[in-house]
Specification:
mainly alpha, two-stranded antiparallel sheet, 4 strands
Protein backbone atom coordinates (compact mmCIF):
# COMPACT_ATOMS: atom_id res chain seq x y z
CA UNK A 1 0.00 0.00 0.00
CA UNK A 2 1.47 3.34 -1.03
CA UNK A 3 1.91 6.29 1.32
CA UNK A 4 -0.76 8.19 -0.55
CA UNK A 5 -3.29 5.39 -0.03
CA UNK A 6 -2.37 5.06 3.66
CA UNK A 7 -2.91 8.76 4.26
CA UNK A 8 -6.28 8.61 2.56
CA UNK A 9 -7.27 5.64 4.73
CA UNK A 10 -6.19 7.14 8.05
CA UNK A 11 -7.69 10.51 7.34
CA UNK A 12 -10.88 9.24 5.81
CA UNK A 13 -14.20 10.31 7.29
CA UNK A 14 -14.97 6.89 8.80
CA UNK A 15 -11.55 6.65 10.42
CA UNK A 16 -11.90 10.11 11.97
CA UNK A 17 -15.33 9.21 13.36
CA UNK A 18 -13.97 5.97 14.80
CA UNK A 19 -11.09 7.85 16.41
CA UNK A 20 -13.37 10.47 17.91
CA UNK A 21 -15.69 7.72 19.18
CA UNK A 22 -12.80 5.87 20.81
CA UNK A 23 -11.60 9.06 22.52
CA UNK A 24 -15.09 9.86 23.81
CA UNK A 25 -15.47 6.30 25.04
CA UNK A 26 -12.21 6.54 27.00
CA UNK A 27 -13.27 9.86 28.48
CA UNK A 28 -16.63 8.40 29.53
CA UNK A 29 -14.92 5.40 31.15
CA UNK A 30 -12.56 7.69 33.03
CA UNK A 31 -15.38 9.88 34.33
CA UNK A 32 -17.41 6.83 35.31
CA UNK A 33 -14.49 5.31 37.16
CA UNK A 34 -13.39 8.45 39.01
CA UNK A 35 -16.77 9.87 39.99
CA UNK A 36 -19.24 8.46 42.49
CA UNK A 37 -22.61 7.84 40.88
CA UNK A 38 -25.76 9.21 42.59
CA UNK A 39 -27.91 6.65 44.39
CA UNK A 40 -31.54 6.46 43.39
CA UNK A 41 -33.68 5.74 46.44
CA UNK A 42 -37.40 5.06 46.16
CA UNK A 43 -39.62 4.43 49.16
CA UNK A 44 -41.75 1.34 49.41
CA UNK A 45 -44.79 3.58 49.20
CA UNK A 46 -43.69 4.61 45.67
CA UNK A 47 -42.83 1.12 44.44
CA UNK A 48 -45.41 -1.17 46.06
CA UNK A 49 -47.82 -2.96 43.77
CA UNK A 50 -51.47 -3.15 44.81
CA UNK A 51 -54.13 -4.72 42.57
CA UNK A 52 -57.82 -3.86 42.61
CA UNK A 53 -59.61 -6.04 45.18
CA UNK A 54 -62.55 -6.91 42.94
CA UNK A 55 -60.17 -7.98 40.19
CA UNK A 56 -58.23 -10.19 42.62
CA UNK A 57 -61.42 -11.87 43.80
CA UNK A 58 -62.34 -12.59 40.19
CA UNK A 59 -58.86 -13.89 39.30
CA UNK A 60 -58.59 -16.07 42.40
CA UNK A 61 -60.94 -18.62 40.79
CA UNK A 62 -61.82 -20.27 44.09
CA UNK A 63 -58.26 -20.14 45.45
CA UNK A 64 -58.75 -17.14 47.72
CA UNK A 65 -56.98 -18.69 50.70
CA UNK A 66 -53.90 -19.57 48.67
CA UNK A 67 -53.78 -16.08 47.19
CA UNK A 68 -54.30 -14.57 50.64
CA UNK A 69 -51.37 -16.52 52.08
CA UNK A 70 -49.11 -15.41 49.23
CA UNK A 71 -50.04 -11.74 49.65
CA UNK A 72 -49.70 -11.95 53.45
CA UNK A 73 -46.23 -13.50 53.34
CA UNK A 74 -45.06 -11.04 50.69
CA UNK A 75 -46.39 -8.12 52.74
CA UNK A 76 -44.54 -9.28 55.86
CA UNK A 77 -41.31 -9.61 53.90
CA UNK A 78 -41.63 -6.18 52.27
CA UNK A 79 -42.98 -4.26 55.30
CA UNK A 80 -41.17 -1.03 56.13
CA UNK A 81 -41.18 1.35 59.10
CA UNK A 82 -41.51 4.66 57.25
CA UNK A 83 -44.33 6.80 58.66
CA UNK A 84 -47.22 7.57 56.35
CA UNK A 85 -47.99 11.26 56.87
CA UNK A 86 -51.07 11.61 54.67
CA UNK A 87 -54.57 10.79 55.90
CA UNK A 88 -55.99 9.59 52.58
CA UNK A 89 -56.18 5.79 53.14
CA UNK A 90 -53.58 5.25 50.42
CA UNK A 91 -50.79 3.73 52.50
CA UNK A 92 -49.51 0.69 50.62
CA UNK A 93 -49.64 -1.43 53.78
CA UNK A 94 -53.23 -0.43 54.48
CA UNK A 95 -54.18 -1.34 50.92
CA UNK A 96 -52.50 -4.74 51.35
CA UNK A 97 -54.21 -5.47 54.68
CA UNK A 98 -57.49 -4.33 53.19
CA UNK A 99 -56.99 -6.69 50.25
CA UNK A 100 -56.34 -9.60 52.60
CA UNK A 101 -59.53 -8.72 54.49
CA UNK A 102 -61.48 -8.82 51.22
CA UNK A 103 -60.05 -12.16 50.10
CA UNK A 104 -60.28 -13.88 53.48
CA UNK A 105 -62.58 -12.02 55.92
CA UNK A 106 -61.90 -14.56 58.70
CA UNK A 107 -58.11 -14.13 58.67
CA UNK A 108 -57.76 -12.95 62.28
CA UNK A 109 -54.02 -12.19 62.24
CA UNK A 110 -54.55 -9.67 59.46
CA UNK A 111 -56.74 -7.56 61.74
CA UNK A 112 -54.70 -7.99 64.92
CA UNK A 113 -51.19 -7.48 63.56
CA UNK A 114 -52.21 -5.26 60.64
CA UNK A 115 -54.03 -2.81 62.89
CA UNK A 116 -51.13 -2.61 65.34
CA UNK A 117 -48.53 -2.12 62.64
CA UNK A 118 -50.50 0.63 60.92
CA UNK A 119 -51.23 2.49 64.17
CA UNK A 120 -47.91 2.17 65.99
CA UNK A 121 -45.24 1.82 63.31
CA UNK A 122 -46.71 3.52 60.23
CA UNK A 123 -48.72 6.12 62.16
CA UNK A 124 -51.62 5.51 59.76
CA UNK A 125 -54.39 5.94 62.33
CA UNK A 126 -57.29 6.05 59.90
CA UNK A 127 -56.11 2.91 58.11
CA UNK A 128 -55.65 1.06 61.40
CA UNK A 129 -59.14 2.05 62.53
CA UNK A 130 -60.73 0.65 59.37
CA UNK A 131 -58.82 -2.63 59.70
CA UNK A 132 -59.94 -2.99 63.33
CA UNK A 133 -63.54 -2.23 62.36
CA UNK A 134 -63.47 -4.88 59.65
CA UNK A 135 -62.06 -7.41 62.12
CA UNK A 136 -64.66 -6.62 64.78
CA UNK A 137 -67.46 -7.32 62.29
CA UNK A 138 -66.32 -10.94 62.29
CA UNK A 139 -64.92 -11.13 65.84
CA UNK A 140 -67.17 -8.69 67.75
CA UNK A 141 -66.28 -9.99 71.22
CA UNK A 142 -62.57 -10.51 70.72
CA UNK A 143 -60.66 -8.99 73.63
CA UNK A 144 -57.49 -7.97 71.78
CA UNK A 145 -59.25 -6.31 68.86
CA UNK A 146 -61.62 -4.37 71.13
CA UNK A 147 -58.77 -3.35 73.42
CA UNK A 148 -56.56 -2.13 70.58
CA UNK A 149 -59.44 -0.40 68.79
CA UNK A 150 -60.49 1.30 72.03
CA UNK A 151 -56.94 2.47 72.73
CA UNK A 152 -56.55 3.76 69.16
CA UNK A 153 -59.83 5.67 69.11
CA UNK A 154 -59.57 7.24 72.54
CA UNK A 155 -55.90 7.99 73.07
CA UNK A 156 -54.60 8.28 69.52
CA UNK A 157 -57.52 9.72 67.56
CA UNK A 158 -59.41 11.53 70.29
CA UNK A 159 -62.66 9.76 69.38
CA UNK A 160 -63.93 9.29 72.94
CA UNK A 161 -67.40 7.82 72.22
CA UNK A 162 -65.97 5.19 69.86
CA UNK A 163 -63.16 4.33 72.26
CA UNK A 164 -65.66 3.99 75.08
CA UNK A 165 -67.81 1.64 72.99
CA UNK A 166 -64.96 -0.80 72.47
CA UNK A 167 -63.65 -0.67 76.04
CA UNK A 168 -67.10 -1.20 77.56
CA UNK A 169 -67.36 -4.50 75.67
CA UNK A 170 -64.32 -5.95 77.43
CA UNK A 171 -64.44 -4.33 80.89
CA UNK A 172 -65.45 -7.66 82.50
CA UNK A 173 -63.17 -9.81 80.37
CA UNK A 174 -60.74 -11.92 82.49
CA UNK A 175 -57.84 -10.59 80.38
CA UNK A 176 -58.70 -6.95 81.02
CA UNK A 177 -56.26 -4.99 83.24
CA UNK A 178 -57.58 -3.87 86.59
CA UNK A 179 -57.39 -0.19 85.69
CA UNK A 180 -59.71 -0.45 82.68
CA UNK A 181 -62.82 0.31 84.77
CA UNK A 182 -61.19 3.46 86.05
CA UNK A 183 -60.48 4.55 82.49
CA UNK A 184 -64.07 3.83 81.48
CA UNK A 185 -65.36 5.86 84.43
CA UNK A 186 -63.24 8.80 83.36
CA UNK A 187 -64.58 8.48 79.85
CA UNK A 188 -68.14 8.37 81.10
CA UNK A 189 -67.60 11.41 83.29
CA UNK A 190 -65.62 13.18 80.57
CA UNK A 191 -62.99 14.29 83.09
CA UNK A 192 -60.08 13.90 80.70
CA UNK A 193 -57.02 11.67 80.67
CA UNK A 194 -54.34 11.21 83.32
CA UNK A 195 -50.91 10.34 82.03
CA UNK A 196 -50.40 7.71 84.71
CA UNK A 197 -53.31 5.69 83.35
CA UNK A 198 -52.07 6.11 79.79
CA UNK A 199 -48.69 4.80 80.99
CA UNK A 200 -50.39 1.69 82.41
CA UNK A 201 -52.27 1.12 79.17
CA UNK A 202 -49.13 1.42 77.03
CA UNK A 203 -47.27 -0.84 79.47
CA UNK A 204 -50.00 -3.44 79.05
CA UNK A 205 -49.51 -3.32 75.27
CA UNK A 206 -45.73 -3.57 75.70
CA UNK A 207 -45.97 -6.63 77.93
CA UNK A 208 -48.35 -8.42 75.58
CA UNK A 209 -46.66 -8.07 72.22
CA UNK A 210 -43.81 -10.16 70.83
CA UNK A 211 -43.16 -8.01 67.76
CA UNK A 212 -39.76 -6.34 68.22
CA UNK A 213 -40.62 -3.28 66.12
CA UNK A 214 -43.72 -2.66 68.22
CA UNK A 215 -41.81 -3.24 71.45
CA UNK A 216 -39.16 -0.68 70.50
CA UNK A 217 -41.78 1.93 69.65
CA UNK A 218 -43.79 1.27 72.81
CA UNK A 219 -40.64 1.38 74.93
CA UNK A 220 -39.90 4.89 73.64
CA UNK A 221 -43.49 5.87 74.44
CA UNK A 222 -43.15 4.48 77.96
CA UNK A 223 -39.97 6.48 78.56
CA UNK A 224 -41.64 9.68 77.34
CA UNK A 225 -44.74 9.15 79.47
CA UNK A 226 -42.77 8.33 82.63
CA UNK A 227 -40.44 11.31 82.12
CA UNK A 228 -43.32 13.71 81.56
CA UNK A 229 -45.17 12.43 84.65
CA UNK A 230 -42.08 12.62 86.85
CA UNK A 231 -40.90 16.03 85.64
CA UNK A 232 -44.34 17.56 86.18
CA UNK A 233 -44.33 16.13 89.69
CA UNK A 234 -40.79 17.32 90.50
CA UNK A 235 -41.11 20.78 88.99
CA UNK A 236 -44.40 21.40 90.77
CA UNK A 237 -42.78 20.35 94.08
CA UNK A 238 -45.24 17.55 94.76
CA UNK A 239 -44.46 14.80 97.29
CA UNK A 240 -43.42 11.22 96.49
CA UNK A 241 -42.05 11.97 93.01
CA UNK A 242 -39.80 9.52 91.19
CA UNK A 243 -36.21 10.75 91.18
CA UNK A 244 -35.11 8.35 88.42
CA UNK A 245 -36.29 7.89 84.85
CA UNK A 246 -37.48 4.61 83.34
CA UNK A 247 -33.89 3.55 82.63
CA UNK A 248 -32.82 4.08 86.24
CA UNK A 249 -30.95 7.35 85.69
CA UNK A 250 -31.45 10.29 88.07
CA UNK A 251 -33.26 13.36 86.80
CA UNK A 252 -30.92 16.35 86.62
CA UNK A 253 -31.52 19.44 88.75
CA UNK A 254 -30.29 22.66 87.21
CA UNK A 255 -31.24 26.24 88.16
CA UNK A 256 -33.94 25.00 90.55
CA UNK A 257 -35.61 22.96 87.81
CA UNK A 258 -35.50 19.27 86.94
CA UNK A 259 -34.58 17.90 83.53
CA UNK A 260 -34.52 14.42 82.06
CA UNK A 261 -31.03 12.90 81.63
CA UNK A 262 -31.71 12.59 77.88
CA UNK A 263 -34.02 14.38 75.40
CA UNK A 264 -37.32 12.71 74.61
CA UNK A 265 -40.37 13.24 72.44
CA UNK A 266 -43.49 14.16 74.38
CA UNK A 267 -46.14 11.46 74.12
CA UNK A 268 -49.22 12.96 72.49
CA UNK A 269 -52.60 11.54 73.37
CA UNK A 270 -54.25 13.02 70.32
CA UNK A 271 -51.78 13.00 67.44
CA UNK A 272 -53.95 15.24 65.26
CA UNK A 273 -53.96 18.02 67.84
CA UNK A 274 -50.41 17.46 69.09
CA UNK A 275 -49.02 20.60 70.66
CA UNK A 276 -46.09 20.86 70.68
CA UNK A 277 -45.35 18.90 67.54
CA UNK A 278 -44.36 15.23 68.06
CA UNK A 279 -40.95 15.98 66.54
CA UNK A 280 -40.15 18.68 69.11
CA UNK A 281 -37.56 17.61 71.67
CA UNK A 282 -38.55 18.27 75.27
CA UNK A 283 -36.51 17.75 78.42
CA UNK A 284 -38.08 20.28 80.80
CA UNK A 285 -41.76 20.20 81.75
CA UNK A 286 -43.50 22.44 84.27
Amino acid sequence: MTINKLSKYFFSRDALLALVGAILFLIACTINYNNEKPTLELSKQDTALNINNDLLVYLSAGNKRLLTDLIWVQTLIESDIEHYKKRDLNSWLFLRFNTVATLDPLFYENYFYGGQFLAIVKDDLEGANIIYEKGLKHYPDDYKLNYNAGFLNYYEMGNYPQGLKYLRKIENNPQAPVFIKSIINKLLLATGVELEEVFQLVLHNFMNTKDEALKNKLQRDLYSLRAEIDLKCLNNHKPNCNLKDLEGNYYVKRDEAYFSPKPFVRYQLNKREANPLPSEKIDFIK
